[in-house]
């Protein structure tokens, strides 16, 4: 299955997915990285792995619809079937949602519907919850609101700070995201 990863940041999830794809652990081909940030480190990771990057500058466009049409064009050219969001800090608009209905995944570092949006780990710590985790869901027009596909819980230990929790969440994400993608490819989800 041909996939595209959308990312705006460091790209650790991208890296794991693209490597596993190249090693044949995952039955996907990462055809494209879509990135909206000029200096996002994920781009170097893509270059190192030989994954083509489509980087666009949102401020060069008047409307979301305009840049999503450009994205759609490259996705179609590359025969992309599944979109995998991994730290893409934008809401997906109707253009992509309609073209890839039910075929856009996102990963979020909390047990949704708790703590949607930015800084989910900090939000969880502020709220003094004892358990947080990771959610993988289908993307709809809302912010972190689509149907949940998989979740895993993580206990927050006494005295743990955001960076300690983030490290554990990241390890969980790197295990869970490829697993779910593979299940989708196999038709198990
Ligand atoms: C992850 O924590 C993911 O849950 C969130 O953005 C972060 C991306 O991390 N949506 P990375 O860029 O893959 O390291």
Automatic annotation (TrEMBL):
It catalyses: N(1)-(5-phospho-beta-D-ribosyl)glycinamide + (6R)-10-formyltetrahydrofolate = N(2)-formyl-N(1)-(5-phospho-beta-D-ribosyl)glycinamide + (6S)-5,6,7,8-tetrahydrofolate + H(+). One of its GO terms (molecular function) is phosphoribosylglycinamide formyltransferase activity. InterPro entries: Formyl_transf_N, Formyl_transf_N_sf, GART, GART_AS. Residues 1-181 form the Formyl transferase N-terminal domain. It is an enzyme of class 2 (transferase). The active site is at 108 (proton donor). The record marks 144 as: Raises pKa of active site His. N(1)-(5-phospho-beta-D-ribosyl)glycinamide binds at residues 11-13. Pathway: Purine metabolism; IMP biosynthesis via de novo pathway; N(2)-formyl-N(1)-(5-phospho-D-ribosyl)glycinamide from N(1)-(5-phospho-D-ribosyl)glycinamide (10-formyl THF route): step 1/1. Transmembrane segments: none annotated. Keywords: Purine biosynthesis, Transferase. Pfam families: Formyl_trans_N. One of its GO terms (biological process) is 'de novo' IMP biosynthetic process. (6R)-10-formyltetrahydrofolate binds at residues 64, 89-92, 106. Its EC number is 2.1.2.2. GO terms for cellular component: cytosol. Belongs to the GART family. PANTHER family: PHOSPHORIBOSYLGLYCINAMIDE FORMYLTRANSFERASE. Catalyzes the transfer of a formyl group from 10-formyltetrahydrofolate to 5-phospho-ribosyl-glycinamide (GAR), producing 5-phospho-ribosyl-N-formylglycinamide (FGAR) and tetrahydrofolate. This is Phosphoribosylglycinamide formyltransferase. It comes from Pontibacillus litoralis JSM 072002.
